[in-house]
């Protein structure tokens, strides 16, 4: 009879051995349970059984049996669920029913089935809706069946005249492909020994146990050719068992999905070669199963062997089924360098040793002032992991984690153990982990019932903790060393990335991308423009891009964190509280408690709840301090109920210091660039005047990255009615000093020219003004001229070329000639004798003026020069002034592949 049938009905026919029925209880709309009897069969590939006496300690022993069995099968993914259900069902048998409990573990191709049978069939299963319902909160029995309904994929109850058998089935999750085990780099003298060539025999066995494939290495190892062994059973060659104590036969091993171990192979010469084998059960596209066997010489087993862990069941039990040595419960721990596995195994065995309902282990920080939760079982571990509590506590808690403590009832002392608040645990025993007198951690076991533990249990747990403390500390130090090496590499890479840019926005993006998801689930960066400004939310990033907008909206509605310069991370609770309130409001709207159209309510529930979950965990703020000033805050967050570990916060603090300096450098660079660009614009004319009958076009290109002021300048301006002045010059050098001379020259030219002075007089007075600057003076090359359009359509130019590249004249017939003669540059000698030359431009003629950045454009040893510029200009016949200037600039840019190293200015004037 299965669960949900009326007691007293005839039991069903016995089910065939080796199959798993498919029975699932599913609630309908009213909450009633129904039985789904759709048949489905699964092939049993392995089984393990044990019987337990009707005593309380049998529950812990049964948990250990199931855990070791499933871990031995490689099913660590479902161990916790299986242990919880087994614990409840065995408790029902040995405590409530008072009979022996028979536990049977069945391994199938699609899951694991566990059966717990007691010898009290008259004790019926409570029915849903009955007065003695298993859902009644006042009823102690039947709660294990509720867990079966909630956790197991399929479950049920079978009755026989002498037994009641409760079973449940767990489906194996899909496992991603990845590294299962890895080892550190070792010096050559510590590596395993092997022959000059390691031969790996690959033997494939078909479903009947006969050899179907035999590779060349197998021929070399055992002396048989492939045609000699193909079709023969492997049992004809295997000397089984080679390893003492092996109870599984070769035929059984070939049927397992995976097996590793040692045995012997009889070679063609009659000798037995010890081998280490790794078997893997596979199937082809037609569904036919076979086993692939990899074989190496036994002394070369390191090539194939998976690191093995000794199961706890190998420890010698006492006559009453309980371990005589408290430390023996920890023998099955993982390798010492696997800290998380070691801690998890420790808390599970501590719970089983004291028959507790939960256990936890905390590790001390380096300064021994706080304890950090690193492993727990039977508790909401996601909420507790990496949470921190002080070692020394005030009234209401156990005074110090440095001493063993027993609490008979936590209800009498609320908050005595903060980790157990709201978990339903009543009694707890905690003991310290110490190495050489130094506190390294704390181990605790708790139970739901009060007064479960006494000093005797505390001594047992303390003895076990003393035996495991050194291994835990060794693994912790190893993990810390690996983390610090990884942190150093992380910081080096982060420094390189941050130093590679001076752009503020890119720096903000790099800060966030380096923290998410390596250090945190989400990140927000606040910036402060100056001391009088409020922090501004500048950048938000989450590992799920769909949640970024929701987090940004949430943070924008709450006050930013205070810009406190105190180093280190501090907890910021505002985002979590705001997310909780937003989620509560959304839930109330979804229940219609605030009124309004339902479709409007529903549309806002999803993003709000998702955002609340994303920012509902621990949130910390790190100040961004550069040059003794807080320039922003770096905010890191975790999803609901998660905490940061101390090492991650220390790494984030190191990163924040580097990021703050990079952000401040980007700010200074941006300010300098803005100032330089503003100054550069002030040194150039705001616009070019329109001259009747003359086309004027100017192209200016500043070299560098825009953060320096160039020394080249140009100007075209009206002097009087019908007369226009034009100039193009180059001040030696760049930067503020060159900019000062540039500004002096451009403004002095306009003032002196409008006073009615001739070109030579204008340049002579400008030369005197430059020399008066003293040490700040710079020499200046300058081409200055006056242009007057004529009534016949031509234009008259009076030009003075003071040390500047000569202007070129392009006639309509394509000939190019210099339009002036060279004269001394300005800013060097006091007495200059300058003169002006008169040039008449006929209609269609072009006058081209450039700075030396054009003529000195280089590609290796080649230079464009005056001749190269003239050759380009000859191709510009018939073009407008704008087209001429554009063609010259294109030719200059294409002449060399490198970026220009000098400013360039091009002034083209054409008589229309």
UniProtKB/TrEMBL annotation:
<dbReference type="Pfam" id="PF07228">
    <property type="entry name" value="SpoIIE"/>
</dbReference>
<dbReference type="InterPro" id="IPR052016">
    <property type="entry name" value="Bact_Sigma-Reg"/>
</dbReference>
<dbReference type="InterPro" id="IPR036890">
    <property type="entry name" value="HATPase_C_sf"/>
</dbReference>
<dbReference type="InterPro" id="IPR001932">
    <property type="entry name" value="PPM-type_phosphatase-like_dom"/>
</dbReference>
<protein>
    <recommendedName>
        <fullName>PAS domain-containing protein</fullName>
    </recommendedName>
</protein>
<dbReference type="InterPro" id="IPR003594">
    <property type="entry name" value="HATPase_dom"/>
</dbReference>
<dbReference type="Pfam" id="PF00989">
    <property type="entry name" value="PAS"/>
</dbReference>
<dbReference type="InterPro" id="IPR035965">
    <property type="entry name" value="PAS-like_dom_sf"/>
</dbReference>
<dbReference type="Pfam" id="PF13581">
    <property type="entry name" value="HATPase_c_2"/>
</dbReference>
<feature type="domain" description="PAS">
    <location>
        <begin position="202"/>
        <end position="232"/>
    </location>
</feature>
<keyword id="KW-0378">Hydrolase</keyword>
<dbReference type="InterPro" id="IPR003018">
    <property type="entry name" value="GAF"/>
</dbReference>
<feature type="region of interest" description="Disordered">
    <location>
        <begin position="1"/>
        <end position="33"/>
    </location>
</feature>
<feature type="compositionally biased region" description="Basic and acidic residues">
    <location>
        <begin position="23"/>
        <end position="33"/>
    </location>
</feature>
<dbReference type="InterPro" id="IPR013767">
    <property type="entry name" value="PAS_fold"/>
</dbReference>
<dbReference type="GO" id="GO:0016791">
    <property type="term" value="F:phosphatase activity"/>
</dbReference>
<dbReference type="GO" id="GO:0006355">
    <property type="term" value="P:regulation of DNA-templated transcription"/>
</dbReference>
<dbReference type="InterPro" id="IPR000014">
    <property type="entry name" value="PAS"/>
</dbReference>
<dbReference type="Pfam" id="PF13492">
    <property type="entry name" value="GAF_3"/>
</dbReference>
<dbReference type="InterPro" id="IPR036457">
    <property type="entry name" value="PPM-type-like_dom_sf"/>
</dbReference>
<dbReference type="InterPro" id="IPR029016">
    <property type="entry name" value="GAF-like_dom_sf"/>
</dbReference>
<dbReference type="Pfam" id="PF01590">
    <property type="entry name" value="GAF"/>
</dbReference>
């Amino acid at each position: 009879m299965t669960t949900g049938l009326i007691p007293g009905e005839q039991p069903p026919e016995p089910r065939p051995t080796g199959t798993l029925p498919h029975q699932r209880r599913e609630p309908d709309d009213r909450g009633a349970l129904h039985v789904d009897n759709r048949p489905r069969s699964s092939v049993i590939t392995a089984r393990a059984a044990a019987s337990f006496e009707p005593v309380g300690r049998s529950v812990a022993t049964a948990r250990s049996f199931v855990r070791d069995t499933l871990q031995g099968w490689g099913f660590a993914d479902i161990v916790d669920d299986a242990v919880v259900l087994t614990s409840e069902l065995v408790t029902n048998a040995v405590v409530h029913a008072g009979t022996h409990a028979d536990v049977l573990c069945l391994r199938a191709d699609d899951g694991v089935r566990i059966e717990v049978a007691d010898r009290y069939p008259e004790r019926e299963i409570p029915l849903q809706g009955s007065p003695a319902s298993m859902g009644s909160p006042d009823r102690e029995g039947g709660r294990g069946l509720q867990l079966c309904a909630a956790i197991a994929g399929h479950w049920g109850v079978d009755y026989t005249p002498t037994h009641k058998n409760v079973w449940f089935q767990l489906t194996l999750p899909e496992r991603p492909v990845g590294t299962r085990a890895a080892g550190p780099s070792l010096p050559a003298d510590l590596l395993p020994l092997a022959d000059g060539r390691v031969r790996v025999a690959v033997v494939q066995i078909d479903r009947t146990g006969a050899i179907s494939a035999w590779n060349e290495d197998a021929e070399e190892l055992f002396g048989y050719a492939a045609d000699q062994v193909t079709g023969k059973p492997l049992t004809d060659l295997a000397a089984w068992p080679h390893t003492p104590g092996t109870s599984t036969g070769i035929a059984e091993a070939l049927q397992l999905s995976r097996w590793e171990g040692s045995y012997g192979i009889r070679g063609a010469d009659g000798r037995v070669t010890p081998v280490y084998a790794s078997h893997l059960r596979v199937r082809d596209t037609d569904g036919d199963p076979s086993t692939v066997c990899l074989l190496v010489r036994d002394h070369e087993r390191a090539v194939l062997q998976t690191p093995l862990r000794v199961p706890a069941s190998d420890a010698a039990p006492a006559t009453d089924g309980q371990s005589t040595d408290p430390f023996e419960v920890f023998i099955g721990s993982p390798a010492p360098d696997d800290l998380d596995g070691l801690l998890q195994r420790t808390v599970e065995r501590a719970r089983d040793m004291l028959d507790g309902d939960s256990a936890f282990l905390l590790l001390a920080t380096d300064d021994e002032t706080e304890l950090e939760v690193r492993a727990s079982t039977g508790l909401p571990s996601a909420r507790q992991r990496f949470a921190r509590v002080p070692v020394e506590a005030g009234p209401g808690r156990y005074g110090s984690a440095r001493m063993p403590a027993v609490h008979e009832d936590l209800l009498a002392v609320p908050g005595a153990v903060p980790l157990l608040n709201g978990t339903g645990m009543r009694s707890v025993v905690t003991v310290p982990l110490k190495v050489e007198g130094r506190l390294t951690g704390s181990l605790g076991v708790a139970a739901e019932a009060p007064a479960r533990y006494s000093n005797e249990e505390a001594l047992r747990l303390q003895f076990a903790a003393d035996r495991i403390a050194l291994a835990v500390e060794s693994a912790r130090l190893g993990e810390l060393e690996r983390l610090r090496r990884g942190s150093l590499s992380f910081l080096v890479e982060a420094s390189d990335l941050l130093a590679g840019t001076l752009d503020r926005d890119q720096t903000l993006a790099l800060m966030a991308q380096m923290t998410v998801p390596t250090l945190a689930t989400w990140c927000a960066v606040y910036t402060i423009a100056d001391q009088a400004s409020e922090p501004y939310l500048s950048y938000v990033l989450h590992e799920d891009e769909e949640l970024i907008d929701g987090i940004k909206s949430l943070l924008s509605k709450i006050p930013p964190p205070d810009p406190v310069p105190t180093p280190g991370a501090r907890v910021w609770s505002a985002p979590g509280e705001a997310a909780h309130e937003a989620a509560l409001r959304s839930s109330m709207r979804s229940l219609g408690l605030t009124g309004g159209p339902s479709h409007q309510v529903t549309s806002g529930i999803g993003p709000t709840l998702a955002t609340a979950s994303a920012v509902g965990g621990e949130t910390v703020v790190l100040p961004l301090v550069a040059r003794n000033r807080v320039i922003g805050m770096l905010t890191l967050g975790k999803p609901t109920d998660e905490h940061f570990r101390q090492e991650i916060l220390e790494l984030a603090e190191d990163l924040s210091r580097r990021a703050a300096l990079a952000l401040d450098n980007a700010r200074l660079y941006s300010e300098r660039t803005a100032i330089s660009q503003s100054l550069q614009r002030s040194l150039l004319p705001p616009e070019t005047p329109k001259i009747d009958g003359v086309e004027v076009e100017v192209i200016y290109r500043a070299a560098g990255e825009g953060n320096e002021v160039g020394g080249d300048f140009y100007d075209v301006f009206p002097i009087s009615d019908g007369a226009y002045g034009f100039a193009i010059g180059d001040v030696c050098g760049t930067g503020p000093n060159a900019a000062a001379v540039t500004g002096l020259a451009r403004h002095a030219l306009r003032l002196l020219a409008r006073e009615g002075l001739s070109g030579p007089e204008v340049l002579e007075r400008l030369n005197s003004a430059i020399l008066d600057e003293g040490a700040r003076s710079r020499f200046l090359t300058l081409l200055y001229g006056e242009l007057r359009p004529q009534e016949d359509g031509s234009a008259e130019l009076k030009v003075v070329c003071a040390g500047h590249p000569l202007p070129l004249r392009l006639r309509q017939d394509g000939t190019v000639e210099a339009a002036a003669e060279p004269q001394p540059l300005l800013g060097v000698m006091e007495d200059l004798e300058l003169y002006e030359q008169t040039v008449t431009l006929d209609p269609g003629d072009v006058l081209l003026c450039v700075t030396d950045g054009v003529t000195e454009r280089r590609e290796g040893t080649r230079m464009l020069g005056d001749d190269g510029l003239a050759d380009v200009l000859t191709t510009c016949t018939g073009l407008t002034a704008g087209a001429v200037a554009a063609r010259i600039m294109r030719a200059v840019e294409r002449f060399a592949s490198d970026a220009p190293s000098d400013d360039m200015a091009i002034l083209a004037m054409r008589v229309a």
